[in-house]
Description:
heterodimer, A: mainly alpha, 3 domains, 14 helices, B: mainly alpha, Rna Polymerase Sigma Factor, Chain: A, Arc Repressor Mutant, subunit A, 12 helices, 73% helix, 0% strand
Amino acid sequence: MKCEEMEALLPDYLQGSLRAEQDQLVEQHLTECADCREDVLIWKKLSLLPVEKPSAESRERFEAMLQAYQTGRSDKASARLERPKRASVWEWLRSPVGAVAWSAALLVIGIFAGNLLGAKTTHTNANQDEIVALRSDLANMKQMVVLSMLQQQSASERLQAVSYSTRTDQLDPQVMSALVHTLRYDGSVDVRLAALDALSRHGAQPQVHKGVVDALQEQQSPLVQVALIDLMLEWRDPDAAQRLRNFEQTPNLNPTVKQRADWALSKLN
Amino acid sequence: MKELERAARENDQAMKLAPDEELMLEVRNGTGETLGVLFDRYHSPLYNFYAKLTGDRTLSEDLVQEVFLRILKYRQSYEPGTPFRAWIYQIARNARVDHYRKTPRHITFEPEMVAPVMPKDSAQQSEETELLHKALMQMPEEKREILVLSRFQELKYDEIARLLGCELGTVKTRIHRAIQELRQNFKQLERGLAPREAGPAVVKNIPPRRFGNEM
């Protein structure tokens, strides 16, 4: 037998899975061929390499990870449960999401109580006023929540904040400027894109309009750049063409973004 | 009370004997309590897989943790009926690839990372072990990987074929070539012809212990 034929047989020989007659063929060849013999030898020698022991902390780290994971999950699960534990209710009420739900609940109670009273007294106008007042309280509350959530460490919470902000038709100037700030400076591309999406509904507001259009020059992410270009095109900004031409001078501009800007310019003219 | 304890113990016993796949199904449908048993079974083999592949112990420990985190995160993607061993090695390979994507390495072989724990054998044997280790680390990573998988992780060739996404015949050919290369590397190192690492390798050639043996 030649060495080339060993190629197909040797690995099986090493795992001991050859039929007897093939096994003999291989052993015959091994007595004749030093190289192949050494191949077998080196394979066997590999058993010299010690089995290494992972450190003792390894198990501890795993336990900690598992526990953290399970706690995270049970928190989520208990938020969904109807009667969660007392401690987690408190935690939940203190969280921004809890605050919104809490104020909504107060509003419902208020309306309900108002209706009860209204049935008795028939001062419906006064009740209407009260409801309006309560509604505006709720709107304020929501905006506070949005503002505080935009400061969160976790990108997903900031994302949530942005999406909350879209639930009210009227944006508080403070929230608006917070969103513009997010669009410009947030670390996460997703959050910036969401902020842009939220702001795009309020293009009629000069403050928003300016904030969005100004943001183009500072954006680093091609995704956000493209979204901004599209929005400028949609808004038909009077000086959009000039701004885009300036923007195209940016050094190291992503070719796709440049293409998009060219395309937008051609549409604008 | 005693019955409860006994039941708990029996449950424990059953868990320790249950096949991987069954345990993984429980992890998949539950919150992961049974993952501990799988950790006990696999963390040492995985650690050795990474240690032999990368020569870096700290990195290997981190990667093992990453594998188990991924199992938890992606437990829903475990398809009932698929061999767990194949699945976990798939995750292990991906975790390593992703790690190097994030932090590209500049050097594949760093002498100070290597030094395996030497068995307390004769000086000659530990010298041989060291050469062998070096010869293994000199190989390109994909060749080293296939050797580690077949020799140390004791994966069957068809398991390796599925893992690497190639034909069974290809696996055998690649293993054969890897063995040949390892043998050549080892020979070269033995003859001292290799692009040698300065210092330790030379010093180790005359360890003081050896004199004692000879006299």
